[in-house]
């Protein structure tokens, strides 16, 4: 088995699409509507057939409450791995991203945290150990 799709709830799909493509550098994979429902996914340009990230409209009250609580606690909604965290930090910051934590060394990795402007904190990680 493999993971093909994971979902991230966002408060505005169009704003999320701009952020995840223009700022983070992902590419749009799927975008279609059925009535008021919009199916929207992005992928890494490094793995265009890899795991898709669904940017789902957060119109479910239970999911919205969970999303807001996680954000208030400073917990990331997703983690993206990088081989070059310092370079990615500078590139993403230059594109207007607000980092809540710059690249910081922790046990076995270097992590950074940013606000996706759509209700989520996103963690970037560069692993320095092999498991």
UniProtKB/TrEMBL annotation:
Q: Where is the VOC domain?
A: 2-127
What the entry lists under Pfam families is as follows: Glyoxalase (PF00903)
Q: Note the coiled coil stretches, chain numbering.
A: none
Q: What is this protein called?
A: Glyoxalase
Instruction: Name the species this protein comes from.
Output: Limnochorda pilosa
